[in-house]
């Protein structure tokens, strides 16, 4: 049985105290890079805001949240050119799945990087995500040190 994100928060708080700190530091000339998080579990928003509070407060990154693939696509289409640099999307969502969103984003907005997040680390989802253009694949519970490293690399490349 998979627990909700809310049940995992004590684990993440403990992990923060014990993990090697990877801090997103200012990258010369780079501020306010926008990342979009797409997940039908609304608790994910609170978790990401907690984990990236320093980077948000410093103005290094901006996080936006949508709770369905359809809402994410609408959000991107309503801002021309899109101001989102990177999307982190759950795979299993009602309506449009994360894999469907990935295909549409890569088709309509090829400059936006997309990584998939899934509670299931199965080979099928992993292979389908990477073949469809995903940059990375993260499993839940999320390893935020790896996620921060991915964000840092993205900021340095842009």
Number of helices: 7
Number of strands: 5
Q: What percent of residues adopt helix (DSSP H or I)?
A: 40-55%
Cross-sheet strand order for the largest sheet = 2-1-3-4-5
CATH superfamily: Response regulator
CATH architecture: 3-Layer(aba) Sandwich
Structural class: alpha/beta
How much of the sequence is in beta strands?
A: 15-25%
Order of helices and strands: HEHHEHEHEHEH
Number of separate structural domains: 1
**Average pLDDT, all residues:** 83
Radius of gyration: 15 Å
- Could you describe the largest sheet, including whether it forms a barrel? 5 strands, parallel
CATH topology: Rossmann fold
Q: Segments where pLDDT lies below 50 for 5+ residues?
A: 1-30
Distance between the termini: 39 Å
Shape assignment:
globular
> Can you identify the CATH class?
Alpha Beta
Question: Can I get a quick summary?
Answer:
It contains 7 helices and 5 strands; from the N terminus they run αβααβαβαβαβα.
Provide a descriptive summary of the structure in words.
The structure is a single chain. With 158 residues, the chain is an alpha/beta fold. The protein has a single domain (30-157), classed as Response regulator (Rossmann fold, 3-Layer(aba) Sandwich). The chain is 45% helix and 18% strand. It has seven helices and five strands. A five-stranded parallel β-sheet has the order 2-1-3-4-5, with helices on both faces. Strand 3 (84-90), helix 5 (98-108) and strand 4 form a beta-alpha-beta unit. Helix 1 (5-18) runs parallel beside helix 2 (43-51) and helix 4 runs parallel beside helix 5. It starts with a helix and ends with a helix.
């Amino acid at each position: 049985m998979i627990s909700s994100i809310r049940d995992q928060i004590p684990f993440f708080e403990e992990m923060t105290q014990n993990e090697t700190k990877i801090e997103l530091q200012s990258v010369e000339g780079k501020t306010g890079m926008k990342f979009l998080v797409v997940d039908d579990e609304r608790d994910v928003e609170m978790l990401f805001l907690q984990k990236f509070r320093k980077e948000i407060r410093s103005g290094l990154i901006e996080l936006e949240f949508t709770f369905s693939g359809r809402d994410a696509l609408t959000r991107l289409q309503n801002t021309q050119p899109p101001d989102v640099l990177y999307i982190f999307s759950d795979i299993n969502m009602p309506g449009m799945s994360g894999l469907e969103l990935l295909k549409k984003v890569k088709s309509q907005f090829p400059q936006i990087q997309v990584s998939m997040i899934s509670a299931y680390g199965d080979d099928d989802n992993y292979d389908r995500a990477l073949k469809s253009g995903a940059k990375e694949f993260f499993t839940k519970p999320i390893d935020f040190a790896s996620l921060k490293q991915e964000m840092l690399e993205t900021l340095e490349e842009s």
